[in-house]
Design a protein that fits this description.
Elements (H helix, E strand, L loop, with lengths): L16 H5 L18 E3 L9 E5 L1 H6 L4 H5 L1 H8 L10 E3 L2 E4 L2 E5 L5 E8 L5 E7 L16 H17 L5 E14 L8 E12 L5 H9 L3 H15 L8 H25 L1 E2 L21 E2 L24 H20 L2 H27 L7 H16 L4 H8 L7 H4 L19 H21 L3 H11 L7 H12 L4 H9 L35
Antiparallel strand pairs: 1-3, 2-8, 4-5, 6-7, 7-9, 8-9, 10-11
Helix pairs in contact: 5-16, 6-7, 6-9, 8-9, 8-10, 9-10, 10-15, 11-14, 16-17
Bound molecules: adenosine monophosphate and magnesium ion (MG).
The site of magnesium ion has 3 residues, from loops.
């Protein structure tokens, strides 16, 4: 039983600005509907039969000043499964719309996410708590408001892995199985099955998406658009000064900058979001809504993990920077309905494209360990490497990580084949024909010449490169193995991966087996190379 004095969990300090400052949907009941003149609808999580804490993140818990004992308490599991509320919680689902696959989709909203409230921690930081999979809301449309274990586990692990990689992201506090099953047709092919249900608790300073603003512009609710914008600025962008014409433009410009930085990080680590609809774009520039995402094993700019996207490949790895720009344009259009001034918005968008280009070049130079002022020759060097990587199936993570171990001079050895330190990176050695090897050798020679010009000690360069090129990422096949074990009731691999990915840039000799190419069984396996939105 819950003891009021047993844990500080019960004394989390809530300051619910969003619900306090913005208008609620007046209808209190939980039926599916179109909502107008409101930013959110109050709704209670649906209690579940038998919640069990599968995993939790100590680093995310620390953001709420929660100790290990708090997280292990029965109250924690009850609260973050949605079975009970803490004093100060005021649960609600947000109203938003979005452009999905390039078309305006109208009202979407938190169909299976329920915000519990905004915690202010001891350091004065604001963290909104949000349950995903805690039952239907007025925005659930025809779906059930639930989430299955496989997708919840993927979200839980990837959020924390991205954080430790230094990629801006929403966080994940807990992964709880519900003891109930959920019916899912994973590939929409008429083969539904009952799967274990789960709830993840996510944390972010704010979960506002581009779509929260778009819906208000699209439905001509200009007053509300202004109020939402004012709330966003005063809560999450206070450094922009008081809300008004000038700070509105600066808000958009900052979102452009943050989005550029986020996307360049994705490109650096080989992350493919998979559903970059505008309802999945955070105005804080955080990676949000981990669904059919994937990690590049072999470097392939055309790859998309999402089967729904297989045809148009809109959300393929190489297209992410362009799509983020397109999404920003939609947000800019929404803002234009308020400000009526296109010029500053266009300028910010222009800066987005310039920033992406510049940061992509700097990122690639860092992956290659180039220091000193960058030049056009460096850009050409980087581009030639990326072209080579697409010619033969090459593991992106292994290739870049090992590149820092390239000996200064190994021309004799390389006459016969690829450098030994890189040999593990190729999936199909038979693809390395004479023409390929010749092109690679020429590139390596140019690369070595460039490095010699830097006069940086090799050890120093290796240390720098190792901070940019992760050794361990959440490969799709690793997540899939953890899922299969968790579905059998064994969360051991979730723990192990959480721990591994806590230090993605460090050598972890005892875990070298996780630094390996995608296994052959995962090449065409659902959950590894093919993911769907059914989650
Ligand atoms: P996504 O593309 O997965 O981010 O989801 C698009 C929209 O569908 C959002 O409004 C989600 O809240 C909603 N949605 C996705 N899955 C479910 C579900 N199982 N139940 C209710 N709404 C859902
Ligand atoms: Mg979404």
């Amino acid at each position: 039983m819950y003891q009021p004095d047993s844990a500080p969990l019960s004394s989390l300090s809530f300051d619910n600005r969003f619900t306090r400052e913005l208008p609620a949907d007046p209808q209190p009941d939980n039926h599916r509907r179109q909502v107008r003149w409101a930013c959110y609808s109050r709704v209670q999580p649906t209690p579940v039969a038998k919640p069990r804490l599968l995993a939790w993140s100590p680093e995310a818990a620390a953001l709420l000043d929660l100790s290990e004992a708090d997280c292990r308490s029965p109250l924690f599991t009850e609260v973050f499964a949605g079975n009970r509320l803490l004093p100060g919680m005021d649960p609600f689902a947000m109203r938003y719309g979005g452009h999905q696959f390039g078309s305006w989709a109208g009202q979407l909203g938190d169909g299976r996410a329920i915000n519990l409230g905004e915690v202010v921690n001891r350091r004065g930081e604001r963290w909104t708590l949000q349950l995903k999979g805690a039952g239907p809301t007025p925005y659930s449309r025809r779906a059930d408001g639930l989430a299955v274990l496989r997708s919840s586990l993927r979200e839980f692990l990837c959020s924390e892995a991205m954080h430790h990689l230094g990629v801006p992201t929403t966080r994940a506090l807990s992964l709880i199985t519900t003891g109930e099953t959920v019916l899912r047709d994973m590939f929409y092919d008429g083969n539904p099955r009952q799967e274990p249900g789960a709830v993840v608790c996510r944390l972010a300073p704010s979960f506002l998406r581009f779509g929260n603003f778009e819906i208000l512009a699209a439905s001509d609710e200009g007053d509300l658009l202004r109020r939402l914008l004012d709330n966003s600025i005063s809560t999450d962008f206070p450094h922009l000064g008081p809300p008004g014409e000038e700070s509105y433009q600066n808000w958009f410009a900052e979102i452009c900058r943050r989005t550029a930085s986020m996307v360049v990080h994705w490109q650096r680590v080989g992350f493919v979001h998979g559903v970059m609809n505008t309802d999945n774009m955070s105005v804080l520039g955080l990676t949000i809504d981990y669904g059919p995402y994937g990690w590049l094993d072999d470097y392939n700019p055309d790859w998309t993990p999402n089967t729904t996207d297989a045809e148009g490949r809109r959300y393929r790895y190489g297209n992410q920077p362009a799509i983020a720009g397109w999404n920003l344009l939609q947000l800019g259009n929404a803002l234009y309905t308020l400000t009526g001034r296109a010029e500053p918005l266009q300028e910010a968008l222009g800066q987005y494209h310039a920033a992406v280009e510049e940061e992509m070049q700097a990122m690639l130079a860092a992956k290659l360990g180039l220091s000193g002022p960058s030049s056009e020759a460096d850009t050409a060097l980087g581009e030639e490497l990326l072209a080579i990587l697409t010619l033969a199936e090459t593991d992106m993570t292994i290739f870049f990580r090992r590149l820092s171990r390239l000996p200064d001079d190994a021309q004799a050895e390389e006459a016969a084949g690829p450098p030994a330190v890189l040999a593990d990176a190729w999936y199909r050695p038979e693809q390395l024909d004479a023409a390929y090897l010749d092109r690679l050798r020429r590139w390596l020679a140019a690369y070595r010449r460039r490095l010699q010009g830097d006069r940086l000690p090799a050890v120093e360069r290796q240390t720098r490169m190792d901070r940019t090129n992760p050794k361990y990422v959440l490969r799709n096949s690793l997540a899939q193995q953890a899922i299969e074990r968790a579905e059998q009731g064994d969360a051991g691999m979730v723990e192990e991966l959480l721990d591994l990915l806590r230090h993605p840039y460090d050598e972890q000799p005892e875990r070298e087996h996780f630094f390996a190419k995608r296994p052959e069984w995962a090449r065409n396996r659902p959950g590894c190379s093919m993911l769907s939105c059914s989650s």
